[in-house]
Amino acid sequence: MIKIENKILRKQPKFWNHALFHPTDAVEDPWGKRILDRMSDDGAIKTIRIYSMFEDIVYTDENGNLCYDFRVSDLRLDYLLEKGYDLLIAYAGIPECIARREFGGCSVAKGKTRYKGKMFNTNLPTDFALWEEVCFQYTKHNIERYGLDVVSKWHLHCWNEPDCESFFMKGVDADKEQVLRATEYCKLYDAFIRGAERASKELTLGGPALAGRLTFFEVFLKHVKDTNARLDFISMHIYGTGRELINSGERPICTKDIFKIYDERMEIIRSYGFEHLPVLIDEWGMSTAGFYNIEECPDFIKRENEVFSAYFAKMISEFVHRADKLEMLMICLSGQHEMVTDFSGFRNFFTLNFIAKPIYNAHILASKLGEDLLTADCGENIFVLPTKDKNGNYAVMISYSSEYFEKDIPEITEEVTFAEDIADKTVTVYCIDKNNTNPYRMWERAGKPEMTEDMLKALREEGKLKPVKIQKGDDPLVLSLTPNCTYLITVTE
Q1: How many Cβ atoms from other residues are within 10 Å of residue 413's Cβ?
Q2: What pLDDT does 366 receive?
Q3: Number of neighbouring beta carbons within 10 Å of residue 317
């Protein structure tokens, strides 16, 4: 039995409905807008993380003076704001006109270049004062265009994964030269802060969007502490495992690895006295390498089916019960432009032909949770996130999975009860499992046929979230829990 108590533990910020939208320059393209429109309409995502993409903005005139063309950037930000998103912007990529030459560019993609043939410029600036000026002019322009009341609500941070060769100082060993890399990044960070603060002191500024190298992290935090540098939030990326580790069997897909990494970093944060700062996990995933698929790692098929949604539900339930200062958890939607077929194991919400995946619908379910966290009793391998809203309506997320998300636990039935009398209310049940809201499993049961228009229509319909059960509050509520299922139960007037 799963019993939902009526005792409120605390107010619970909804930190889980956020995403990195990659590539940023897909915002102005039809396929990118289609995804953004759907997420906005469904309320699946609240905050979008993008890159500033200074390479599209900054150039020099014939006299070497810095010049700015904000038109493409404005188109992107206009669209995101029109759709109601909050923003987290990574000030990333040194403009070619102010970049040194020794480190070069990196594709950071499965292909030879990034989207639209671009490369990520991993160079340092020729002069950090020029980088400061770019950060100032970009911030100033956005404040003038959108208003300080809007921009002050955004999160702005310096760079993306500066401890990783793919994004910073390519060719300098990311593991052996962590102190050198961190020292150069601190110069970049300080100039970013100076530039942004010249535009306004009323902004939310942070860093370092850490990939994971702890010596680098410590050098950065020590610099902030020793110099009293401004740091309004700490941003980091956490992926539970990687394709090589999955393929070798060394680290299969498992949420405990997310928390092992998280706990290591929180210990460092506390050791430098920054435990009071909000933490943003501005990229997360079951595994790294969003731009790789089942060709490189067959187990990435779990990104297409009920496993990813169960992983998400279990993970946010575990984060909630830790009661840490986690402000945002942003799923990384990278690899979206790399797809050539449906159900190929890329890390995104929709397939090539715009079929919604279970992980997308899990985000919609999570968006329905309330702001008051309740208590609940449940059995082994069952993860419950019970909430209530200000109007007294319940929303309870339930998932059922083993440690490694295999089919090694039995199918069970569980009755869900509420301590409060709900006889006069309506109970609505949503389900993602092997048989419900699962286009990949439908296609698999059909024998994985060619994608005809009729098949695509059926799969898109299967990907639309809809109740599997609506009943009166005084009727017994019994759920069939299969491995890696996820439910949301709402109780309303």
Answers
A1: 8
A2: 98
A3: 19
Using DSSP, state whether 176 is helix, strand or coil: coil
pLDDT tens per residue, range 299-321: 999 999 999 999 999 999 999 98
Helix H or strand E segment including 203? none
Kind plus residue range of the DSSP H or E element containing 354:
none
What is the structure's pLDDT at 114? Answer: 82
pLDDT in tens, 246-297: 999 999 999 999 999 999 999 999 999 999 999 999 999 999 988 899 999 9
Respond yes or no on whether the N-terminal peptide bond of residue 386 is cis (omega within 30° of 0): no
What average pLDDT is seen over the chain?
96
Of 341, 348, 306, whose CA–CA distance to 438 is shortest? 306
Give the closest residue to 491 by CA, choosing from 416, 395, 391, 417: 395
Q: What is the pLDDT of residues 440-450, one digit of tens each?
A: 999 999 999 99
DSSP secondary structure code for residue 55 in this structure: G
Confidence check: pLDDT of 68 > 80: yes
Q: How many CB atoms lie within 10 A of CB 53?
A: 22
What b/e sequence results for 11-41 when a residue is b if at least 16 CB atoms lie within 10 Å of its CB, and e otherwise? ebebbbbbbbbbbbbbbeeeebeebbebbbe
Could you give the 3-state DSSP secondary structure of residue 466?
Answer: coil
> What amino acid occupies position 395?
A
Q: Does the global pTM surpass 0.85?
A: yes
Phi-psi region of 361 (alpha: psi -120 to 50; beta: other; left: phi over 0): alpha
Other CB atoms within 10 A of residue 102 CB: 12
| Parallel/antiparallel/unpaired status of strands 2-11 and 120-121 | unpaired
Confidence band of 333 (pLDDT split at 50, 70, 90)? very high
Beta pairing partners, 385: 397
Strand runs (DSSP E) across 358-463, as ranges? Answer: 372-377, 382-388, 394-400, 412-418, 426-432
CATH numbers and ranges of domains, the chain: 13-370 (3.20.20.80), 375-492 (2.60.40.1500)
Report how far residue 490's alpha carbon sits from residue 487's, in angstroms, rounded to the nearest whole number. 10
Which residues 6+ apart lie within 8 Å of 481 measured at CB?
A: 382, 398, 400, 411, 412, 413, 414
d(CA 143, CA 445): 53
Interatomic CA distance for residues 270 and 276, integer angstroms: 9
Structure tokens at 337: 């432009």
